[in-house]
Amino acid sequence: MLVEESIKSAISSIKTNRVRSFLTALAIIIGTAAVIAVIGIGSSASKALEEDIDELGPRTLSIFPSQRKRGGVSSGFNPLVIKDAEALAKNTEHNWMIAPAMSGNRQVKYQNNNISGEINGYLPINFKVRGFDLGHGRLFTDKENLGRKKVVVLGSKVPGELKKSVKDILNQDILIAGTSYRVIGVLEEEGSTGWQNPDDDLYVPLLTASQRIFGTDRLGWINVGISNDTNVDYVMMTIEEILRQKHDIGPGGENDFRINDWSQFSDLRRQATGIFTALIAGIAGISLIVGGIGVMNIMLVSVTERTREIGLRKALGATHKSIMMQFIIEAVLLCVLGGLIGVFIGTSLLYLFATFNDWPFAMPISAIIGSITFSALVGLFFGIWPAKRAAQLDPAVSLRYE
Amino acid sequence: MIINVKDIKKSYTVGTQEVNALRGINLSVEKGEFISIMGPSGSGKTTLMNIIGCLDTPSSGEYELNGSLVSKLEDDELARIRNKEIGFVFQSFNLLAKNSVLENVMLPLKYAGFEKSEAVKKSNEVIDKVGLSDRLAHTPAELSGGQQQRVAIARALVNKPSIIFADEPTGNLDSKTGKEVMTIFKELNASGQTIILITHEESIANQSNRIITIKDGLIKSDNRGTHD
Ligand SMILES: Nc1ncnc2c1ncn2[C@@H]1O[C@H](COP(=O)(O)OP(=O)(O)O)[C@@H](O)[C@H]1O
Ligand SMILES: [Mg+2]
């Protein structure tokens, strides 16, 4: 019942001095709002990242050619070639999708319009590995690849760049480096992934690209699509084994290719986001402590103003402990109210921010509970001294206080 | 004997000057007495009340309340005594402005650790005694001065104290409401309640059965029961 009395008294005191209480709690409000918004933005960002990765479809490893050194001396460039991809594709131990690709810029022309387009040589399976969806028409087939057919699939923005609608350009012939190619399909908009912009590119069968456009069997990269439950380390070992054998690399020799695990890269990015979030949230947390000093200040004022009330309560039998409790509860309540308002504001900010950036709205409940708990602790810590001052007041002197 | 005070002295140091508020008070109070303390302003009446009310401790001397020595007790023990054994009534009422009549009267019971339902019951009884049952939910600002002082009396009574101290309880009231308040004190005393009342006014003091006058921190006279 005493706790109830303390809470009632605290609420009444905060209500009596509405404006002052609000101003006092302002630093707590701002601090909590900042902490909540930052943590929320951080977690929404990594959720957005996760969704991006999920959209990539199955997990993808990428193999790139790389400089090989022997005894510290560079021994030239050892390309990845189509035969390497075929060797990988022959392996049946792993249920993987081998997607070799080569690319380069070529002149693209349709009627009077000229653009410079990034031409990608793809196998049909490449579209699946990248998770590209077809918007109009069709994709090319393995048979068309083997036949080096002159067909092309356009990224979603290419028709626009050629000043044509999809309907106008589909099933028409365009010129790539002066040779005419039949447009058989247009992709759906994929969006930029940060390092690539698939919507601006053109896609032709790999063997067509190799023999008719680029005149080489050198690949730019090989993507390896694996399912999410695959043992990545084992897959990497197998790739190494096959390629080293293909490239005649003896024991102790260095690889002339490297394998990227994109999801590892995302993990890193996620980790970096996490560290950054924690850092900013920590800085924002400091403003909570500054707010605590303000609360202490106002509590000291409140104790002085209520000297007579404290004297009366003591005359009626309030102990040291019960007076302490009354004022600590008041400080904690003030901070918790500030914290609640701050959470509300911070969450609203996050909501606006997430909506604006088209991010998912992810507010960890632990951040809300954590920051309110922290506000309460700030109130507790900074309320102790004023409460002690109140409890130590001499009742006889306090009752004479005007 | 409820109160037995032996050679109580109290001095304050203000700056470099020493103020001797009480200079050796001897006093004993029996159960059921109704005592008035009179004396000029600054003579030490409130200081004496604070000490025998356990709000303050004497600089020297001994004080027994209900047979136990209290002049050397710790803070929390004094708080317990103030809560259970003593009821205060002040000149300026000292009610909590935001609280209702009922809540004001319940306050000592909260500090005593009573359950809410029991506290409400006990409070209602004493509020009934001072005739304010129809004002339970009113706040002090909604009451007249006389009514406020009656709430304060109810609050002083609620824990059934051994003794009630009233420091100039009619000082802020007009003579008519002052009389009403005195009627309540007389009724309480008639039912056995020990009361010590500080006052300036002879007409008030004359209604008690023992008048003590204080001057410069010393008892000047102590006259027992002349009135009926
Ligand atoms: N806390 C204090 N500090 C210093 N002097 C005090 C204090 N309390 C009371 N006094 C002094 O003690 C004397 C007695 O005061 P008080 O008991 O209030 O007198 P009364 O109630 O009879 O008017 C006065 O001179 C007053 O100024
Ligand atoms: Mg006085």
TrEMBL record, chain A:
The keyword Kinase does not apply. It is a multi-pass membrane protein. Residues 283-395 form the ABC3 transporter permease C-terminal domain. Pfam families: FtsX (PF02687), MacB_PCD (PF12704). GO terms for cellular component: plasma membrane. InterPro entries: ABC3_permease_C, MacB_PCD, Macrolide_Exporter_MacB. This is Macrolide export ATP-binding/permease protein MacB. The chain crosses the membrane at residues 21-42, 275-303, 324-353, 365-385. It is found in: Cell membrane. Its main location: membrane. PANTHER family: ABC TRANSPORTER PERMEASE YTRF, MEMBRANE COMPONENT OF TRANSPORTER-RELATED. The keyword Signal does not apply. Belongs to the ABC-4 integral membrane protein family. GO terms for molecular function: ATP binding; transmembrane transporter activity. Keywords: ATP-binding, Cell membrane, Membrane, Nucleotide-binding, Transmembrane, Transmembrane helix. Residues 21-241 form the MacB-like periplasmic core domain.
TrEMBL record, chain B:
Residues 3-227 form the ABC transporter domain. SMART domains: AAA. It comes from the Bacteria. One of its GO terms (molecular function) is ATP hydrolysis activity. Keywords: ATP-binding, Nucleotide-binding, Transport. The lineage of its organism: Bacteria, Pseudomonadati, Pseudomonadota, Gammaproteobacteria, SAR86 cluster. PANTHER family: CELL DIVISION ATP-BINDING PROTEIN FTSE, LIPOPROTEIN-RELEASING SYSTEM ATP-BINDING PROTEIN LOLD. This is Macrolide export ATP-binding/permease protein MacB. GO terms for cellular component: transmembrane transporter complex. Belongs to the ABC transporter superfamily. Macrolide exporter (TC 3.A.1.122) family. InterPro entries: AAA+_ATPase, ABC_transporter-like_ATP-bd, ABC_transporter-like_CS, MacB-like_ATP-bd, P-loop_NTPase.
